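HOLO CASE FILE
Compound: manganese (II) ion
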Amino acid sequence: MSRSSLTDLVQDLASGAIKIIDLTATLEPSTPTLKLPTEFGWGVSWPFSIEEISRYDERGPAWYWNNFKCGEHTGTHFDAPIHWVTGKDHNDHATDSLPVESFVAPACVIDASKESAENPDFLMSIEFIKTWEAEHGQIEEGSWVLYRSDWSKQIKSDKYLNESDDGSHTPGWQPDAVTFLADERNVVGVGVETVGTDAGQAAAQEPMFPCHNIMHGANKCGLAGLKNLDLLPAKGALLIAPPLKIKGGSGSPTRVLALMMSAV
Ligand code: 23J
Ligand code: MN
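Model generated. C-alpha cells follow.
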C-alpha cells in the first residue's frame, strides 16, 4: 500500500496519537440564545425546541425521530460573511457557497480566561494578541483564532449571558484587534465561547458589533458558543467546522471538532 500523510493520519487516529476533542455544546431547549436590546424592534432568534414524531410506538412502531426548530445562530454555531451587511456583496459568502477549505483549518488559541474572569466586559486588544504571538509565534494565515474565556464553563448559569439592566456583560474585542486579525493575519475567522462573537455590550461599540462588522466585511467567518478550548494547545490543533448547507444561509448550528496530538 502506498503511504501518504493521510495514511499516517488514519494510523495516528487509530493509535490515539492524535485525539479528537469535541468543541460543541449540547443543543437543547435550555441552550442560551442571544438577547439583543429590544427597544429598536429588532427581530428575535428562536431558541432550540424539539418535538417527538414517534418513538417505537403507534406513531411509528419501528422508529424514533424528532422535529426541531431554532434560529441559525443557536448554540455552538457558524457565522458566514453574508450574516452582516458589511459582508453582503462578497462572492461565495453563505453557508452553501463558502469554499469547503474554510471548514478545515488550524487553530490558534488565545487564553484570556483570567482577564475575562476579572472583568466580564474585557475587550481583547492588539497588544494582547501580540504578547501571545511573542510567546507562541505569529498567527499563520488561514488559521482560526479561538478566544479562550472559559465562559462555556458557566453555560448552565445566569452568568453565561450575565444580563443586567443595561444588557449583557460578556467578553469581546477591541475593533482594531479584529482589523489586525483580518488584515494583518488573514485568519479564516475567530471563534469564541460566548453566545456571539462580539462582546455583550457591543451594540454600544464603534462600529456597532465590531467583530461582526469587520470580520464579515473582510469575508471572514465566525464560530460562537464553543467549549473545551481549555483542552487545546495554543497552536497545533486542526479544526473541523462545516456548517449545514442551508441555501443562502447566514450560519447554522455546527458540530465543531479539533484534532490534536496526544501528550506523550
Ligand atoms: C445579530 C446581531 C448581533 C449579534 C449577533 C447576531 C450574533 O452574535 C450572532 O450570533 O451572529 S452579536
Ligand atoms: Mn452568530
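CASE NOTES: The pocket of oxo(2-sulfanylphenyl)acetic acid (ligand 1) is lined by residues 34, 36, 73, 79, 83, 196-198, 202, 209, 212, 224 (CB under 6 Å). The longest strand covers residues 60-69.
CLOSED: yes
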